[in-house]
Amino acid sequence: MSRLKAKILLTGLGVLATSGFLLAPRIHQYFLLRNNAADRLRFRADDLSWKNQWIAARPLYASAELLYEKQGRGSEALYSHISQFIPRAETEPATGLLFELNSDLQKPEARDPATKLRILEIEGMIAANYDASLARKTWKDVQALAQEQHRYSLAMRARGEQGIAAFLLGDVASAKKLVTRAWLAAKVLHDQAAHVRYASAYGAGLVEIQRYNEALKALDDAIHTAENSDGVAYPTIAVNSKIDALCGLGRYREALALADQALHRLPSGELDAHRFQLHTSKGNVYEAMEFFDDASVEYGQALVYARRIQYWRGIVQTGGLQAAAYERRGLLHEALMAINEALYANTRIPDELYFSPRNLGIKAKILSRMGHSQKAAELYEKSAHLLDSLFATAPTPNVERQLISEMREVYADYYEMLSLQGKVAAAFRVIEQARGRVELEALRDHAPTTPHLPSPEEKYVTELNLRLLKADRRGSSEILARELYEAELQLDASTPGGKRTRAPVSLKSVQHHLGPNELLLEFVMANPASSVLAITDRSVHRYTLVSWKTLRPQVSAYRKTLKGRRSDQALARTLFSELLAPVHEYKTKPTVLLVPDEELHLLPFGALVDDEKFAIEDHTFSSTPSATVLSLLRDRAVGTIDDSLSYVGVAAWTAPPQTVPATAVRGVADDSLSLPFLPQTAREVELVAQDLKGPGTMLIGAEATESHFKHLPLGQYKVLHLALHAFADVEFPDRSALVFAPQEDGRDDGLLEAREIRELHLNAKLVTLSACDTGVGAIGASDVANLVNAFIEAGSSTVVSSQWSLEDAATERLMAAFYEALTKGVAADDALRQGQLLLLRSGLPPYYWAGFQIAGNPAPR
């Protein structure tokens, strides 16, 4: 994972400082009662270190150490001595400090329980910057000893530190559980220093997985708490992570200003780790702005500080960034030297693999540009194998997508190298490794699951959702929303173990699954040029397209135009000329299957304009997470034709408007939200039932609750038609949900979220999400995390969805035409096109028809 590893701790004093621990109150009282000068000094130093003021505490510990030595109190002198190690860690190598601590632990004076515990605390703090495996083990020992000594606050902090070490080692599920529990416990116990520490760590983790707006909430919480708590140290981790979050949101000037402000606030000397991280963060901002000269300067300065204190994780991280910046500038020899240093540094922390795949990919790209193609290919393959090992322990589908996103440039660069060498089949295999992996895992492993009783945590989340639905005041809704957020943090998001690496199907196999009139387009968006693989049943060609830097704002602008119920023929022609016109096969293949990349997932290709007509007028368009997923779905369809179409239709919002708090559907507004009345949806599901003429079930109005729906034998239905409201949460995709009718019995909250959809066991040939924004989601390098893909992962073959808010009457007309065509044996993609053409030829603009898309296997009949 990209930039977090050097930051969640953990840069020297910044992280170490936020790990200070105060002795239990009863021990402090004991010191005071003794009225000894050394004890008083130690008490004051412990108080400062508790508030993360390690530099201020250091001279007090030194004075206490001298007095204890004169008094012959060896254990207390050793305690005071090792308590001075944290400031030393800013400028001295961790190896020497850890060796010294290990030697101190063997001394007779270390048999004192408090002194032994203190040595392990300091070792855990320093090890966090050196070896996450050692840190995790040490903090487990700290937790056990703290519990024996009835120091429960310290034991809770030790759990949080284990969580941070777990994150560095790739155990994201454990990390989330441990860190968030430590954070929430600190808030309850009013432990402000720990509150700052774990809010900072959690926010930094969110930055790492690109949930920037959500991260800012946790980071601002940490910064605000530090600024408003007497004596709590400057929240370095939170500030560094906030710089990255602002950069991720494109707020570059704010990010640079915050970095300069932080550098200015640092006291002189002894803060090399702080300076390392701040210069790295500034380099990240300049890189995002494409000021690679400035980025190189900042990375170079950061590495000076990292080398000085032998901060291996920092050299691994920033050395790779420096190499990439040099490569962008064409300084290949300098780039090679930088990446070799980074790879060597990784050998000093062999358990921390996150940067290795990326750094191997960077070196491969450099060698490729230097003409060493064979060696580059070997490194790319090694990088991919390392990434597979990280996938094996990924706890959630979203983490898998995030891992792919972190590695998108490596896959794209390897693909580009192979395709330029004419090795198209090999290039296809590489890019397919980065596409649809989550859906592929689900489809290959999907089996009926035994219903389980909800856990206490799940019950509590449901209870909070129900209370939110009933909340009628703004203040109470805000309080409940915060409680819900904290409750969700504690949900166990682990997935079944025993995952296997999934190999993509071969190019020949994909061609075997294509019909004579079909064209599969696999897009790869990149800079300075993008490309597309055009695959038919008999041929494959690669075409160079314009850069993603050029395309991205055009795609965004055209989508905004269509959603605003406007048209822009000139822009529609431009996008057609850039994306489809270069593909010669497009002219002869009327059925186009898309494997999109980046925001192309959200582009309605049928609304592009070829000369004077919309593309949909002579072509059908559908999408699929990957060519491999398409092949698997088509294999599953063979031999499963069933003439008795069983059907379930759901229309919840058929009664007059009901007020629901915006927070209940994960909205951004604070006031109550009145969900619109959808009177046509009842007729819509009834007409579909008439068309299908098979056994079916309809849930309409008050009957259309989440509980009623989930308790149907969903695996027996071939068609699911859900005419509901929906909410797409781009920042937290698992929260995206279909909104069912409110229910009073308390069994469910009325929100069928993406994470719940994945747990359904479906065999549906067709799922129609006749709801707003069901095709919208968080965009990544692999695919889009949305409700559509959740239904595919649950076992659906084909999913129809929408890209924006729908107009009720026009949607009913389109759906009636769609199902009428289906009952006549028309393939699903062409049936949807017929419904869209009906609206187009009636004079309606693209807003009314272009937002519908079909995904998965587009051709079931």
Describe this structure in words.
This protein is α/β, with parallel strands linked by helices and 861 residues long. The chain folds into 3 domains: 12-352, Tetratricopeptide repeat domain (Serine Threonine Protein Phosphatase 5, Tetratricopeptide repeat, Alpha Horseshoe), CATH 1.25.40.10; 507-629, Nucleotidyltransferase, domain 5; 640-856, Rossmann fold (3-Layer(aba) Sandwich), CATH 3.40.50. The longest helix is centred in the middle third of the chain and has 19 residues, at 373-391. The radius of gyration is 29 Å and the shape is globular.
Round the mean pLDDT to the nearest integer and report it: 80
Radius of gyration computed on alpha carbons: 29 Å
Distance between the termini: 43 Å
What fold name stands as the CATH topology of the largest domain? Serine Threonine Protein Phosphatase 5, Tetratricopeptide repeat
Give the % helix.
Answer: 55-70%
Describe the biggest sheet?
A: 6 strands, mixed
Give me some keywords for this one.
861 residues, alpha/beta, Serine Threonine Protein Phosphatase 5, Tetratricopeptide repeat, Nucleotidyltransferase, domain 5, Rossmann fold, 6-stranded mixed sheet, 5-stranded mixed sheet, 38 helices, 20 strands, globular, disordered N terminus
